[in-house]
């Protein structure tokens, strides 16, 4: 999967198209990601030991990883990425438009 935890991504389709956020968690087996403040859903929560008050809670819903692109600060938009191996043997992701490398 091309998206990892702590990446900044841009949503390219759906009701939150154009929103930018940080990836909270990725699920490679399902091909889904959780993005901060994107795809907010309401959940009816019962009171528990940890959460004394029940009620309606807003939380992030998962998105298909194919519906987000990694944000490139140099290009100032979501871009497709590739993989390359640096001279020191480290494998990194890079922007296909400007060849900017992303920290892993």
TrEMBL record:
One of its GO terms (cellular component) is ribosome. Part of the 50S ribosomal subunit. Pfam families: KOW, ribosomal_L24. Keywords: Ribonucleoprotein, Ribosomal protein, RNA-binding, rRNA-binding. SMART domains: KOW. Residues 2-29 form the KOW domain. InterPro entries: KOW, Rib_uL2_dom2, Ribosomal_uL24, Ribosomal_uL24_C, Ribosomal_uL24_CS, Ribosomal_uL24_KOW, Translation_prot_SH3-like_sf. It comes from Acetobacterium tundrae. The keyword RNA-binding applies. This is Large ribosomal subunit protein uL24.
């Amino acid at each position: 999967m091309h998206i990892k935890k702590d990446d900044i991504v841009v949503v390219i389709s759906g009701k939150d198209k154009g929103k930018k956020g940080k990836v909270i968690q990725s699920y490679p087996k399902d091909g889904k990601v959780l993005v901060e403040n994107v795809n907010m859903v309401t959940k009816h929560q019962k009171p528990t030991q940890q959460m004394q008050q029940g009620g309606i809670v807003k939380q992030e819903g998962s998105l298909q990883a194919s519906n987000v692109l990694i944000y490139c600060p140099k290009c100032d938009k979501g871009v497709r990425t590739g993989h390359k191996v640096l001279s020191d043997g480290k494998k990194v992701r890079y922007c296909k438009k400007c060849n900017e490398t992303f920290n892993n």
